[in-house]
Amino acid sequence: MSDFDEAHRLVSELVQDFRAHEHRYLSPEYQEAEARKDFIDKFWKALGWDVDHNIQKNPYEQEVKVERGQDQAGARKRADYAFSLTPNFRDVRFFVKAKKPSVQLENADDYFQTTRYGWNSQNPLAVLTDFEQFHILDCRYKPSIDTALSRAVPSGKFHYTEYLDAEKFARIYWLFAREAVVAGSIEKFAADMPKPRGRAVQRGLFPGGYQSIDEAFLDELDEIRADLARGFKKTNPDLGGEDLTEIVQRTIDRLVFIRFLEDRLIENQHLVASFGDKGTAWEDFIAASRKLDGVYNGIVFKRHAKLDDRDFAPDDALFSAICEDLSHINSPYDFNAIPIHILGSIYERFLGKVIVATDKRARVEEKPEVRKAGGVYYTPEYIVRYIVENTVGKLIEGKSPAQIVEMKFADIACGSGSFLLGVYDLLIRYHTKFYNDHPGKAKKGEVVERDDGLHLTLQKKREILLNNIFGVDIDMQAVEVAQLSLYLKLLQDETPGSTRAHQLEFHETLLPSLNKNITCGNSLIGTDILERGYVFYGFRSTS
Questions:
Q1: What is the pLDDT of residue 371?
Q2: Contacts (Cβ under 8 Å, ≥6 apart) of 305
Q3: Does 429 have pLDDT greater than 80?
Q4: Which segments within 287-389 are labelled E, that is strand?
Q5: What is the DSSP string of 35-61?
Q6: What is the pLDDT of residue 1?
Q7: What's the rounded Cα separation, in Å, for the pair 362 and 75?
Q8: What does the alpha-carbon distance between residue 363 and residue 329 come to, in Å, rounded to a whole number?
Q9: What is the CA radius of gyration of the chain?
Q10: 3-state secondary structure of 207
């Protein structure tokens, strides 16, 4: 019996079970968690995926990431299933959103959420299913609630009784079965999908002119920067270009970081959406910044001499409108689905421009060095990964955490931190695999057990970051972004429970200061610098 025939047999058994007790399964009392356990998990297992992690135990080396949380009123949860392929576990190939069968599957909100998962992770397809129905959605367009219901793939809707038809089931199997995805089924399918016409055409990287997440978000950040620059200058005419560049970026960094905390469910409140509810958007924003600084620390929320000054008075209506557009309610961006390295590449290009101010106006221009070079050039993530795995990866191979703690990895022209982020990610994955392979060697406070295996604690990830990662760049804005990216990586898998537990146990803020690790300076120095008494934090002479 072929893999396809076996899958069809297993799914046909699920169909018979569902049909025999359809009245119960379509009852509102039958919950999503039950549907997933009874049918949806088994459906994907039949297609060859290790949903239960019977084979892949290491949580950082699992092809199927399963989110067991439930929808919260007024909130957006993470995608229920994220599917990837060995060894690129971070590269999601497609997402699946699950619902309970009693819910009408074809609704704008669920279509919007599902397509946003795919678009933000740069995947052309996603699936929305309750087992009774199976809908394949086109994620190449920038998500919009107004057009969400038009995103179903032609002939991509199936009723569970159609799974019995081998020909119709084959359309699902040869697109989403593990063996099919390995063979490039999704890419081939997307290449044959209808191309946009007329006003639907967008600038970007997807075949056919669809705008990718990085292009779209960069465009939005550019618009926000220009609006904030003009608004800040209008109400604070004494601000020069350098100050405007700095405080506008810090404002944007805070908004992005808050949205990250919201979408990762680390913060339960939707702060960005609430700014301006009482007509005091800027005041609310500054108050939240002070509160978040006390919880998180780090450069992002630290008090800024001009930005946090009580006399600084921006246009409140303008800032309120920006927050409304960027809020979880209206924004197409899902910061739980956007890979952190994508955010880094966006910021790399974002930093290629500065704000130039005259007596009354402010405008955004390319930096002279960027203009001269013909644009910003950044290293693609797959090249970063290859270099890191074949340098740092080879260096730490076979070593224990106790040996690695003595090692220092530095990028002396780190920019926005793409290589540092790659090294930090590798170290986290290496330590996690080590402790899952040797659980008896983990010390107290280094790991925590979850449903899918052992995870590093926040404290252990802080320790790795402070002990191993160092960088220097001459551009202070780049240093700020590098620190921001590393902070996002540090918090990536945290939850409200894990962050609260850390605070109760260690009585400290969640983020360590990276001012001694990632610093602003010129790496081109003379040999006389040692004679001047400079001290390099974390390093010692080997002579």
A1: 66
A2: none
A3: yes
A4: 353-357, 362-366
A5: HIIIIIHHHHHHTT--TT-SS--STTS
A6: 84
A7: 37
A8: 30
A9: 25
A10: coil
Tokens (6 digits) for 207 = 């075949």
74-97 pLDDT per residue, tens: 445 678 999 999 988 888 999 999
Of the candidates 420, 416, 410, the one whose C-alpha atom is nearest the C-alpha of residue 478 is: 416
According to the model, what pLDDT value does residue 373 have? Answer: 64
pLDDT band at 209; cut points 50, 70, 90? very low
Cα dihedral: 338, 339, 344, 347 (round 10): -10
Contact 56, 50 (CB under 8 A): yes
Residue whose entry in the numeric block shows the structure tokens 């390295």: 341
**HSE of 397, CA atoms in CB hemisphere, 13 A:** 8
Question: What CATH number belongs to 3-191?
Answer: 3.90.1570
Question: Around Cβ 390, how many Cβ atoms within 10 Å?
Answer: 10
Check residue 482 and give its pLDDT. 94
Does pLDDT of 16 surpass 60?
yes
Closest CA to 6 of 62, 46, 61: 46
Q: How far is CA 467 from CA 27, 401, 512, 514, 521, in A?
A: 54, 11, 11, 11, 20
How far apart CA 449 and CA 457 sit, in angstroms, is 9
Question: Quick one: DSSP state of residue 88?
Answer: B
Going from N- to C-terminal start, the domains of the chain cover: 3-191, 213-371, 379-529
- Only one residue has tokens 């109400």, namely 235
Condensed to tens digits (0 to 9), the pLDDT of residues 40-53 reads 999 999 999 999 99
Distance, in Å, from the CA atom of 415 to the CA atom of 419, rounded to the nearest integer, reads 9
Amino acid in position 196: P
* Cα–Cα distance, 360 to 326 (Å, whole number): 28
**Which two three-digit tokens encode residue 237?**
């005419």
Query: What's the confidence (pLDDT) of residue 77?
Result: 63
Provide the 10 A C-beta neighbour count for residue 516.
12
pLDDT in tens, 337-379: 888 988 888 888 888 889 999 888 899 988 887 766 666 677 8
Residue type, 239: L
User: What CA dihedral angle connects 208, 214, 216 and 220, to 10 degrees?
Assistant: -170
